[in-house]
Design goal:
Length: 399
């Protein structure tokens, strides 16, 4: 199985400058390849330039510009061209699906933050020896950069990526490792219902509070963004304001990830089987369609966009998608089973008599069955129905 590791790097001043130059030159290569594709399609009878043709030109590009393109790893430059090719493949795939995607765009130097190395030992080298307390990673054209390795890397390192986040540099490794030993069976099963008022409710009656990290940081973010809007473009003061806004967003992201990891770890450690709703989170976050006013051309009727915007912010702040991805990854490594079930009527169906009605849920939190009179917390009822649906699906499709 493949696992990823992310470590902070501690480059010297010269290494920091070399890393910035590496990003700059790979960004230039990306933009040049994009321009070539645009020109070929517009001016040469709609000709499509593909990755193989652009990769074959790398040798000439490196020979023509040895000071910039020639000093970096050939395989990393191929990876940059593959990234552009993937962007075009995704663009055409979304067009065939009937979507309206944006055309691949040019990247500014400030927005090009990653360089990939497809193979450890080709343009880079992860150097972690047991007897050496200092871990280093070597990049062609940069040298050996110190790494703060906070945990051991298990397995064989396959790929290495360089990433810039604000003023910090990170190295991201993917390692191929053997399937770990599964955790000891507990005999416990659980269903979870994700929500806004509570981050999740389980079928045993437990709740996990929603930390609302984004809402807590909203005031600071608003002040920082207002300060940014008052800065003159290109000024040193604006660069500092941009870094302040980015730092606040990074803190919220780290807090959200920390909460997701801890919650998922607790579920995986305690339960052998975990069922959750198969939520279409992207569809849930869409804005409502406008309602034209038939009596006044050019005018629109109220469509609840303001209240829906608040709900969308709460959904994004909860981070359900990140949590479910982490839960599935942890469950795979621990030998647990995670199953998604159809969410329809899970909060309206009575777990006692099976009656499904809109009136069964008079408020956000209260569940009262109009048929048998069963009372419970609505989220607990939803989690219980999710668990039952998951067990039925598991028994119908045994591994």
């Amino acid at each position: 199985m493949i696992r990823a590791y992310k470590f902070v790097m501690r480059p010297t001043v010269r290494q920091d400058q070399a890393l910035r130059e590496m990003l700059r030159d790979h960004c230039s290569l990306y933009n040049g390849a994009l321009q070539e594709r645009r020109d070929a399609y517009r001016h040469v009878s709609k000709t499509t330039v593909r990755y193989g043709q652009q990769s074959a030109q790398l040798k000439e590009i490196r020979a023509f510009d040895p000071q910039r393109q020639g000093r970096w790893s050939f395989s990393s430059q191929q990876a940059t061209l593959r990234r552009l090719d993937k962007a075009f493949a995704a663009f055409f795939r979304r067009i065939k699906a009937g979507d309206t995607p944006g055309y691949p765009r040019f990247r500014g130097v400030a927005r090009f933050d990653t360089v990939d190395f497809p193979k450890d030992g080709d343009g880079c080298r992860w150097d972690s020896t047991p007897h050496d307390p200092v871990t280093r990673v070597r990049f062609q054209g940069v040298g050996h950069v110190r790494v703060h390795q906070h945990r051991p890397v298990a397995g064989k390192v396959k790929t290495v990526s360089l990433k810039r986040e604000g003023k910090r540099w990170y190295v991201i490794l993917t390692a191929d490792q053997a399937q770990p030993e599964p955790l000891r069976a507990t005999g416990s099963v659980v269903g979870i219902d994700l929500g806004i008022a509570n981050f999740l409710a389980d079928s045993n009656g437990g709740f996990v509070d929603n930390p609302r990290h984004g809402r807590k940081a909203a005031a600071k973010l608003e002040d920082a963004q207002q300060a940014l809007s008052r800065c003159k473009r290109g000024s040193k003061r604006r660069r500092k304001a941009v870094e302040t806004v980015a730092r606040l967003h990074r803190k919220v992201r780290r807090q959200r990830l920390d909460h997701a990891h801890k919650t998922a770890h607790a579920l995986v450690a305690e339960h052998d089987f975990i069922a959750h709703e198969d939520l279409k989170i992207r569809n849930m976050g869409k804005t409502p369609a406008p309602k034209p006013d038939p009596g006044q051309p050019g005018a629109f009727l109220p469509n609840g966009a303001a209240s829906k915007a608040g709900l969308n912010r709460s959904i994004a702040d909860a981070g359900w998608g990140v949590f479910l991805a982490i839960l599935n990854a942890k469950a795979e490594g621990a030998g647990r089973v995670v199953m998604a079930v159809d969410p329809r009527n899970t909060s309206r169906r009575c777990p006692e008599c099976g009656n499904s009605a809109k009136e069964n849920r008079p408020t956000q939190e209260k569940f009262h069955c109009v048929s048998c009179g069963h009372n419970a917390h609505a989220d607990t009822v939803g989690a219980l129905n999710v668990l039952r649906a998951g067990l039925v699906r598991r028994d119908a499709n045994p591994a």
